[in-house]
Amino acid sequence: MIRKNNIQVALIQHSFKQTKEKTIEYTLEMIRQAAINGADLVVLQELHTSEYFCQSENVDFFKYAESFENEIEIFSQVARKNNIVLVTSLFEKRANGLYHNTAVVFEKDGSIAGKYRKMHIPDDPGFYEKFYFTIGDNEFRPIETSIGKLGILICWDQWFPEAARLMTLGGAEILIYPTAIGFSPNEPKEEQNRQLNAWLGVQKGHAIANGVFVIAVNRVGFEENKLIESIESKTTTESKIAESSESKIAQDSTKYADSAKSNQINGIEFWGHSFIFGPQGEEIAMAKTQNDEIIKAIINMDRIAEVRHMWPFLRDRRIEFYQNITKRFID
Amino acid sequence: MIRKNNIQVALIQHSFKQTKEKTIEYTLEMIRQAAINGADLVVLQELHTSEYFCQSENVDFFKYAESFENEIEIFSQVARKNNIVLVTSLFEKRANGLYHNTAVVFEKDGSIAGKYRKMHIPDDPGFYEKFYFTIGDNEFRPIETSIGKLGILICWDQWFPEAARLMTLGGAEILIYPTAIGFSPNEPKEEQNRQLNAWLGVQKGHAIANGVFVIAVNRVGFEENKLIESIESKTTTESKIAESSESKIAQDSTKYADSAKSNQINGIEFWGHSFIFGPQGEEIAMAKTQNDEIIKAIINMDRIAEVRHMWPFLRDRRIEFYQNITKRFID
């Protein structure tokens, strides 16, 4: 197969549409829209089939992972029908009591090009992922596709230079991060700006240090913390549960435990800003809004060699002195 | 000794002042100026006692390294007299035919707190450092001082996330990069901007990923490539050599070989932009000009814990999967 030098990329950022079923339908329609005018690669946001359910710790949400295989089938079909390489982010049940935050990558013919189980799992107020997901046990290895080697990583992974570097050493040409990150509405504006800039900044750093493209797709919209709400106003919550139960996929997944959590936040305002950075850290595209949006761009894969010839960082790594990176701390 | 939480930092960026002797005198005066209004930490740029001589490969420049011990004496005295922790960047002769690009850090009492020999050495047109400097053979270990643990790294090191991470794991609270980087005047403006933004971006990335302060001090001014000039206009060059030989320190170091080099550039416009980033990547200070300037700021060391409590990246590193970072490439 002859590799294309110019890859048409589409990032799809959107809010949660009340139920899993409606959200998946909406995403499928956005993918079709993206493909109409041509797209080689379509990237979806983290856990795009549902709300970001990790705002509280609730065993009922494990139901969402039951449809993992079914969702693979759905997205395989849409990849094949639209002739796109498709990066999805799903909730995987591996065994009872063993769940992963898993990206599944589809080839243009609908076959599975590869899977990546999120390696770095966060746990902080509003992002209780250690409750839901076990740490991945895959190596940091890029997934080979018809358009190039994709270094798939997920959200919290984006803060770890080791992950970006290992994917690069494995030959990744594009690092791809489906993400779900946002502001707590309680935080002052300047802190929100620092957080957003840090998120953009650390990933721009990966692009530069590794001479690779970096793509992140982040969700948008405010999602309230339903657990908090359920405590504050039980009647209102129950009416919402009724509405939510229209979803067949999400059935029975909307009963929330009543136990309160310390430091919980009222909800998350997901900040969008999905972007593509080039291998010199240059901004190729960024979402113009914090609303649903398809961000499209053409990336030229020759740019990687061009930048690395000028700045040959891979040539000069002092690998014989890097051993201590495998330590927790040097003390 | 009780550690201060608020550290007064001064960065000194300046151009080369025709001779080594004049340049050192000028730097000493800037250090005094910085200390008058109080400074705990003063950082100088890379190879601050001379021009950036690596624009060509010329054995005569090894003479510069003969005064390494003498310069240590000079800067030790100024650290003691001004009661500052001082980060210098010198050309070290270790043995005949064995030279290093070495940062020497002085304690407030003038004693040597530690040395760091540049680990990553560049080599590209205009930056022929592999000719002059052998790669350092020190571990990436921070230097303990009365104001904190300083992760001293030098210029090209700044592109390597491994170096920043190892210093952080060793307990570094501030990463400090004396640097000498600039534009080739031949490059188009947009390429110059991309390079400058990449330089800022990769270091901001280190601050964020590691939750540390990052300081870089970069030289300013245009320095012509004298080798090129000596070929193009021999008479002019000889008059400059006569002028330059006023310097006692630099005596006999200004005879340039006549052999041409491929791809050599006419000179380098050092871009300044010395800066301090905080542990969330926030900009604390940046040079306002591309001229000689003392950049001062107070940094609050408590900010490190504050940011790391919010974003505990060190907690979640998957060290059991990082082993391959010690490989050249995973193929």
Structure description:
2 copies of one chain form a homodimer. Chain A contains 8 helices and 15 strands. Chain A has helices spanning 20-36, 68-82, 129-132, 161-169, 189-210, 226-232, 234-244, 302-310; strands at residues 6-13, 41-44, 85-95, 98-106, 112-117, 143-145, 148-152, 174-179, 182-183, 213-218, 220-224, 267-271, 275-277, 283-286, 293-300. Residues 234-262 of chain A have low confidence and may be disordered. In chain A, helix 4 runs parallel beside helix 5 and helix 6 (226-232) crosses helix 7. Chain A folds into 2 domains: 6-223 and 268-315, Nitrilase/N-carbamoyl-D-aminoacid amidohydrolase (4-Layer Sandwich); 226-263, no CATH class. Helix content of chain A is 28%, strand content 26%. In chain A, strand 1 (6-13), helix 1 (20-36) and strand 2 (41-44) form a beta-alpha-beta unit. Chain A has a 6-stranded mixed sheet. Chain A is an alpha/beta fold and 331 residues long. The radius of gyration of chain A is 20 Å and the shape is globular. The interface between A and B is large, with 56 and 56 residues.
Domain module count of chain A: 2
Give the total of beta strands of chain A.
15
The SSE order of chain A reads EHEHEEEHEEHEEHEEHHEEEEH
Largest interface: A-B, 56 and 56 residues
Indicate the percent of residues in helices of chain A. Answer: 25-40%
Our estimate of the beta-strand percent of chain A is 25-35%
Q: Class of the largest domain in chain A, according to the CATH hierarchy?
A: Alpha Beta
Shape of chain A: globular
Radius of gyration of chain A: 20 Å
| Oligomer category | homodimer
Instruction: Give the uncertain stretches of chain A in residue-range form.
Output: 234-262
If strands are numbered along the chain, what order do they take across the biggest sheet of chain A? 5-4-3-2-1-15
